[in-house]
Every structure is written in structure tokens, then in C-alpha cells.
Amino acid sequence: MDTILDTRAELFRELVYILDDENMMKMVIKEIEEIRAQKAKAEEEPDITKEHLG
After folding, report:
1. pLDDT (tens digit, 0 to 9) for every residue of the chain, 54 residues total?
2. Helix, strand, or coil here: 54?
């Protein structure tokens, strides 16, 4: 089972492949912003569980 540290390391390993591509980095940032917005909405609405974020 992955730990939070394993997951973080995997995220950074994957980011290394696109660090030289500005457009790809912008796409990643946009996706992260959308995920953060989903998380914030889920925290505001108690009937939405983490399963809905996937």
C-alpha cells in the first residue's frame, strides 16, 4: 500500500517529464485548481463524500 510519501514522490516524478513544456504545466495547474475547487465544495457540503472526488 502506498503511503502519502510514496504518492508525493510519484507525483513529483511524473511532473519531471513535463517541466520543460509550459503548455503541459499550465494544463496540470488547471487540473489541480479544479481538484482543489471540488475538494472545497465537498468540504462545504457534508453529503458529498471523498468517493465523489475520484
Report:
1. 689 999 999 999 999 999 999 999 999 999 999 999 999 998 887 665 556 665
2. coil
For residue 30, CA distances in Å to 2, 19, 23, 36 come to: 25, 15, 11, 10
How many angstroms separate the CA atoms of 11 and 49, rounded?
Answer: 23
Q: What is the DSSP letter of 46?
A: T
CA end-to-end distance (rounded Å), the chain? 18
Q: What is the pLDDT of residue 20?
A: 96
Closest CA to 42 of 52, 32, 34: 52
Dist. CA 17–CA 12, nearest whole Å:
9
